Amino acid sequence: MSTRSVALANQKGGVGKTTTSVNLAACLAEKGFPTLLVDFDPQGNATSALGQQRLPGGSVYNVLLGHAALADTIRPSGFPNLDLVPSEVDLAVAEVDVARTENYLQRFRAALMPLINSNRYAFILVDCPPSLGILTMNALAAVQRVIVPIQCEFFALEGLTVITRVIRQIRDCGANPELELAGILMTMYDGRTNLAQQVADEVRRHFPQQVFETVIPRTVRLAEAPSHGKPIIAYESHSAGATAYRLLTEELLQRLGVGTRSESPHPAPATTGAV
After folding, report:
1. At what angle do helices 156-172 and 134-142 cross, to 10 degrees?
2. Is residue 275 a part of any domain in this protein?
3. Is the full-model pTM beyond 0.85?
4. Which domain holds residue 238?
5. In the chain, pLDDT over 90 holds for what percent of residues?
6. Which CATH number does the domain housing residue 9 bear?
7. CA 27 to CA 19: how far, in whole Å?
8. Domain membership flag for residue 264
9. Whether the Cβ atoms of residue 134 and residue 98 lie closer than 8 Å to each other
């Protein structure tokens, strides 16, 4: 199977982007797909969520400047079938330094293509920073698909309008003509509130074909897992959050037309409000 590359992006912070990046990567790995997670966010939360340290010189900073190969930054995550390109604080200055380079929007694409062509991984996921700066633009110019996580809150549609317009511009300007929206994912969903249901209904009305059927519930276990350096399927395998991310993984594979490599028993479907 050829490598599938997916960025998780939203200019808003606190929407479950990193949580989704880590747990989707872990669930793909659990199903037998060799998966690479690239932590493209200077905050390094995806790195910490997998229990890894942010070591000096370990990020994609030097890769973006052409001083290192992306393959040289990969290290094991500690979980089977899942590797990581970590982040650290030096990535924060990449926004400035990369902007001064030639073909500044294509730096990550140039670094990523040899890895994609090698077919070393079935999936490469990129956790973008919560902004539409140089790093996020580089990710969007490099990958094939984008997943946009959104929190079920009042301003969700406003943010969606911005990110979907940017995706269209990246495609139409020729920076990445193949870029497509893999789907919009509603996160932190609390079915006990009218607002969450109203937001979900409104998003589905405006983007009827793009919204994932799977909804990620707001749960205690999902919030706790990163502090233990584990994805939810390793921290609490039978929790509602683990079930939701396994269901999301199945739905993504179906959308991409990818067959399942291994079948593992899943717990019962998640219910909102469960831990």
Report:
1. 60
2. no
3. yes
4. 4-256
5. 74
6. 3.40.50.300
7. 12
8. no
9. yes
Q: What is the pLDDT of residues 24-80, one digit of tens each?
A: 999 999 999 999 999 999 999 999 999 998 888 889 999 999 999 999 999 999 999
- Which residues neighbour 215 within 8 Å (Cβ) at sequence distance 6 or greater? 186, 187, 189, 200, 244, 272
**Backbone dihedral angles phi then psi of residue 249, each to the nearest 5 degrees:** -60, -45
Which among 204, 21, 179 is positioned nearest to 106, based on CA atoms?
Answer: 179
Contacts within 8 Å (CB) and 24+ apart, 111-117: 111/60, 111/63, 111/64, 111/69, 111/70, 112/5, 112/70, 112/142, 112/143, 113/142, 114/69, 114/70, 114/71, 115/3, 115/36, 115/70, 115/71, 116/2, 116/3, 116/5, 117/3
Number of domains, the chain: 1
In a domain, 107, yes or no: yes
User: Do 212 and 198 meet the contact criterion of CB atoms below 8 Å apart?
Assistant: no
Residue 262 lies in a domain: no
Helix, strand, coil tally for the chain in percent (to 5): 45, 15, 40
Tell me the two tokens of residue 260.
């399942």
Assess contact for 270 and 213: CB atoms under 8 A: no
Using an 8 Å Cβ cutoff, are 163 and 210 in contact?
no
Task: Please give the distance of CA 131 from its chain centroid, rounded to a whole number.
Answer: 14
Helix (H) or strand (E) holding 171: helix 156-172
